[in-house]
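Researcher: Here's the sequence for the chain we discussed earlier.
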Amino acid sequence: MSAEQVSLEALRHLFTARNVALVGASDRSTWSAMIVRRFADFGHQGQLYAVNRDGKQAHGLPGYRSCCEIPTPPDLVIIVVPAHSVASALEDAADAGVTSAVVLSSGFAEAGAEGERLQAGLVATARRRGVTFFGPNSMGFANIAGGAVATAIGTRLPVLHGGIGIVSQSGAVSNEISKFAHQQGMGLSFLCATGNEAMVTPADVIDYLVDDPATRVITAYIEAASSTDRLAAAARRALAAKKPIIVLKVGTSAMSAEVAKAHTGAMVGDDRVFDAACEQLGIIRVRSIEEMMVTAALIEAVGPLERPGIALASVSGGGCGMFADLGEQHGVPTPQFAPETRAKLAEILPSYASTLNPLDMTGAVLQDTSLWTRALPVLLDDPGIGLVVTLMAMPGSEAEMATCRVHWPVIAKAYRDAGKRPMLIGQVIQPMGPEALAVAEESGLRDIVFGMDFGTRALGHLARWSRRVALGADVLAAPAALAEPPDLSGERATLDFLASQGVPVVAGTVARSAEEAQATAAALGGAVAMKIASPDIAHKTEVGGVRLGITSKDVGRVHDEIRAAVASALPDARIDGVIVSPMRTGGLELFVGVTRDADWGLAIAVGLGGVWIEILQDSAVRLLPINKGQAREMLISLRAAKLLKGYRGTAPVDLDRLAEVIVAIGNAALALGPKLAALEINPLWVSGGEIEALDALAEWRD
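Model: Thanks. This is the structure I predict for it:
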């Protein structure tokens, strides 16, 4: 999390600056030359000045030795001097009354310990002088809709204006994103590369773009989650505003995590926790630039669906089959049409056409374009369908362009006459050439999502995001932390604390002798479980500290055997005694664990218990706090959910009661306060409606 949040007012001033001084500009500098070209390419609206040691003109801009010499004080400075000179350049700008800056210079935190020291000093200088700066090691920003530019990011001409904002930690990646967007005819409102984000983080920019009227969709490439409190708040505001946030985050593998660390000087948090954060905050997470931008273009075009279903109309039966398979894989809801819809389609289409969803209109439509104008309105009027997508091959030759010239205007008119925005999808992803773009614009058909794979991924994201918009943001109050957390140095103490917080736990007594163990077992009746009680031993089985299913007559002997085995394995461990508990058999063993993520705080995981949590890698994760509904969703999402519902004669688990227990465990962890590192219940025994925590462990931060 950033040490100090940048205000929205400061960000507005930064991103709308008009008069700009380029500090370090010279005719010999390729960087300053590149930036000056971007002013022209993006259409910057304001005065530009060059500042250098000699006060010379650069790139046709009037030159000055200091920002203080400029007649009209700049709103912003772009700094491209060597790293060791950046702080003095910032001081000079502040002396001239400048409060916003972009630092493109590298050699800071990404360069090692000395660079980190320089960066910390730069931040201290900026805060002391009241300057908000973007970077360092940044490629800057282009507020395309607002006509304010301070960037070296590459351009493709003509610049296409639209409603997609791009936030990237990497300058090179921002360049690739904007290149792909231009190839596909996607217009942008905002583009930036935050670099080292010493003051302004991607979360800050996302929060700013939530309020930007020109930006209808926010996309972000990030390598490490920072300022998570602000990102969460921005995501909730975006959800309320029906403005999607689409994130491509690296760090899903150990190798990519190390690369990102070297590149940004920041640690990458646990990927499962980031997934959980996206799920709860309504953030759309994608895995590639193509998926991100196709999803952005789709949602910019249609917004949230008012009705959940999606239909496809196609001239290709093969395309229908491909769409059906990929749609199921990517979560596209394709309900069958209502009976009245199917009856109307049967009257319109040839007898050999089906009336299923996806809809194969057959090649007859290529001979009779009126089929589009008669069939599409019927699909658009279906009570379960919120979006109709038309599949057509995209042009790859002049002959195919001729087909587009005939069919695209007819398709577009059919949508418009029904009061809907037209939407086309192709089978493969390919550039939107100038001729095709011209025909699309003439037809009023600009919303083309190229590629079946990325198209169905985008449609799945649209459907899930639309449901999330309808539900609204989850804002849950966390329970207050205890003023004095109890001493949970042993298993029994941890279980007793959980019991005080409403978690059902197994009964148990710490026996300090074989005689006490024998008496406890006799009072319990039946077989017992016996475990060493020690604040120094987390994994009891590995040292011979656990024995299960012990009958009453053997309890005394087993007590002595456990003590002897542990003493042999760990002679210096503190021993409180041996816990004697009733033996639980049958049912299921679950794992419920809470851990503290460096970025997001406490997160809870649920899965099968025992060794299965490691073998199957089947768990669900959410950020705390959670409610009963979220806990139930976690359970249902498990691959092992069939076992919970009853399998081959076993009793189904009371999911509502189990969800309540999981919520209670999460709340207990929150009550333990900021020093808790982890809380683990393994196993949580479940048999029908009976639920008990059989073992628990708490770990603390230094």
